[in-house]
Write a structure and sequence with these properties.
six-stranded antiparallel beta sheet, globular, D-tyrosyl-trna(Tyr) Deacylase, Chain: A, 33% helix, Beta-lactamase
Amino acid sequence: MKKLLLLLLIAQAHATMAQTIAVKLANAIKQFEADAQVQHGIISLYVADAQTGKTVYEHNAQIGLAPASTQKLFTSAATFELLGSDYRYKTVVGYDGNIEDGVLKGNLHINGSGDPTLGSWRWNDTKEDIVLKKIITALQDKNITNIKGDVLFNDSAFSIQPLPGGWIWDDIGNYYGAGSWAINWHENQYDLHLQPGKKEGDTTQIVKVAPQLNEAHFINTITTGKKGSGDNGYIYLAPNSSLAFTQGTVPLQNEPFVISGSFANAPAQFSRALEQLLLTQKINVAGVFVSYSAMKAGKLAWPAIQKPLLTLLSPPMDSINYWFLRKSINLYGEALIKTLALEKNGLGSTEKGVELVREFWKERGIDKGAVNIIDGSGLSPQNRVTTFAEVKVLQYAKTRPWYKAFYNALPEYNGMKMKSGSIGGARAFAGYHTAKDGRQYVFSIIVNNYEGSSGEVVKKMYTVLDVLK
């Protein structure tokens, strides 16, 4: 009887505490909504008890809003579950024909599977020089010094469209708007080094492009801004295009200022890097360097790889996911969404991958209308998800064997483990927090159509979330 009474008292205490938190959250939201910065905007908040799963507080929790990069949670968790923590991409180097006296009487093949880490600087084994050295070593092991055929880059594993529909023109030429191909390289980004002028308003000069772009020409109209004004420069370069132009400003300073853009054609960039290395290693290629997409456009036959020389493996999925969430790399999300389609349907397309993700969450109790997405990263302003759905994803993750890797990948903001999101007029946070009293919360907050400073609206969002501390 005493034990039962104690349990009832504990339950009552928790209920009272939940009511107190709910009241405080309601007051915080009311104060936030009265702020002029969100007068014409909308705020959505959903908070659940991490241990019981019960709702602590909700406000506009079933309204679909632009989630920005908090949408990555849907892609991340689905990928963990459908591909597995140990999943690795494979890039296969091989050939057709025969090798006789150092001569490859056939073609050299590079078969991609969408690895977004190929040539990335984030792991030792994926760095450009290491990857290229492995390929050269594989050729040298077979004593190949002459290739009579072509070097073929098989990028057919992914659809020909590198970008999701709905991405805006201001984004796609910049590093965070990089498309995804079946052969990616150096995270499909380059650095544009700009020398500012002597005073505000002066034109800038391009002093270096690294790595050098394949057949790209720039019309540079970026000017010099105020000292300390930051990166306000934009690059405009469409996929498979060779003409780029720039607009905006970079800050006044003595040394060059660097902004980063996205490759117009990632397989072509990898092709350029390999071609240059083969030349320096005195491995002669009689034919051409060409991709499957280009050959298909010309209606030319594509020979199959006959014998493998080398298989380049990506880091495991849990390691890829770490950088995907921690640094919010959009390329990784778009590669992952296509990879889901590739593994399920045999061709990696954004549309098929998105449908797989939506169906995955539907089977776990989240209505498709609450996950109304068109890409894997959240960059499109057309995406719409609910805070309720984001919390359900976070709750689901807590029950899975890969949760530790998922949780560890989340950044920390405002003393909380949570994913952030930011696109024009939208800010969002979703994650986990343990209060001082030991109670654990799962939460999501999204604000759309706010006015003024992004930094100021974030401070006000933190004020709401501080109630959970």
